């Protein structure tokens, strides 16, 4: 984050005990939440973003598939620019985690450690949390920063073209990711983190057909080397240029579900074509809903959500310039 963006964010930090009703509170400070904040602020609506600094985008060393950045941009820099842009148009930021969401009579109460805020509408943009391999946090973060450990083959499969790659996963998650990556490299191994790999006979046959090796678990260690990453199981160790963790993720949909919003079987918040949830006045965008977990997709959903929020608010209040 740049010093200027930090200063802007500091000035925008909200007093959560305000009695005024915000037009919209956004829960989540990732690409979806910040895109919506920019739109809503430019609609001349009052908007507060709750950002608990857990956006997955922040951990991206550099993204090369985001349109408009031909030389790439880091996730941290992208978020800093978006925060500054939202603040420029009047969006407020509260650097805190929302602990409770209550649905009153046409008004939402958003609670955090700094108090309560009232809102006419709420956008859930809380995203998901990756399930990490069992390695120390500092080692994990170093591996991600160096491109030795990766989470998104859609984002950066191009970067491992023709390199020695492992997929760490079991069952359908591991199988699907390995098959996806096969179009980038022929030197591919699926490593099960446990003794049982969860693969069906048909899946095993498909992996063999594609020339994807299978390494049985359990995983005993992951070690970072100078230009590679070493995975060791009970049957030996292998060295790779990159390892993709395909261990699944946890969807942060608890706040929406807590006030009755419907979820999919895997926990995503269900929305209509305009990002409305099944609860009036509650919207959702980004990785917390069903769709492609990509920054560009999150931004698109956020633009739809913000415009829907603006139009829906017009039905219950008069939006005119004074």
TrEMBL record:
<protein>
    <recommendedName>
        <fullName>Thioredoxin reductase</fullName>
    </recommendedName>
</protein>
<dbReference type="InterPro" id="IPR036188">
    <property type="entry name" value="FAD/NAD-bd_sf"/>
</dbReference>
<dbReference type="InterPro" id="IPR023753">
    <property type="entry name" value="FAD/NAD-binding_dom"/>
</dbReference>
<feature type="domain" description="FAD/NAD(P)-binding">
    <location>
        <begin position="23"/>
        <end position="302"/>
    </location>
</feature>
<keyword id="KW-0285">Flavoprotein</keyword>
<keyword id="KW-0560">Oxidoreductase</keyword>
<dbReference type="Pfam" id="PF07992">
    <property type="entry name" value="Pyr_redox_2"/>
</dbReference>
<dbReference type="InterPro" id="IPR050097">
    <property type="entry name" value="Ferredoxin-NADP_redctase_2"/>
</dbReference>
<dbReference type="GO" id="GO:0016491">
    <property type="term" value="F:oxidoreductase activity"/>
</dbReference>
């Amino acid at each position: 984050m740049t010093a200027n963006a930090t200063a802007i964010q500091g000035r925008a930090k909200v007093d959560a005990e305000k009695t005024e009703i915000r037009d919209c509170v956004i829960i989540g400070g990732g690409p979806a939440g910040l895109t919506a904040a920019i739109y809503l602020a430019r609609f001349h609506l009052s908007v507060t973003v709750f950002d608990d600094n857990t956006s997955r985008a922040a951990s991206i060393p550099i993204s090369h598939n985001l349109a408009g950045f031909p030389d790439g941009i880091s996730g941290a820099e992208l978020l800093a620019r978006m925060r500054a842009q939202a603040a420029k148009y009047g969006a407020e930021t509260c650097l805190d985690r929302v602990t409770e969401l209550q649905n009153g009579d046409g008004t939402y109460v958003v609670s955090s450690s700094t108090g309560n805020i009232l809102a006419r509408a709420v956008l859930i943009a809380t995203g998901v949390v990756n399930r990490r391999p069992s390695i120390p946090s500092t080692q994990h973060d170093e591996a991600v920063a160096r491109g030795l450990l990766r989470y998104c083959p859609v984002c950066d499969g191009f970067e491992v073209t023709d390199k020695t790659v492992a997929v760490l996963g079991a069952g359908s998650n591991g199988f699907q990711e390995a098959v996806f990556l096969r179009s980038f490299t022929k030197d591919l191994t699926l490593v099960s983190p446990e003794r049982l790999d969860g693969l069906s006979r048909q899946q095993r046959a498909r992996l063999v057909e594609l020339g994807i090796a299978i390494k049985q678990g359990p995983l005993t260690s992951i070690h970072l080397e100078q230009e590679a990453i070493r995975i060791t199981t009970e049957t030996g160790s292998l060295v790779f240029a990159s390892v993709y963790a395909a261990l699944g993720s946890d969807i942060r949909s608890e706040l929406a579900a807590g006030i009755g919003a419907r979820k999919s079987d895997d926990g995503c918040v269900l929305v209509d074509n305009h990002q409305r949830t099944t609860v009036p006045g509650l919207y959702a965008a980004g990785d917390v809903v069903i769709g492609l977990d990509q920054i560009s997709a999150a931004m698109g959903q956020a633009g739809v959500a913000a415009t829907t929020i603006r139009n829906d608010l017009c039905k219950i209040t008069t939006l005119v310039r004074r």
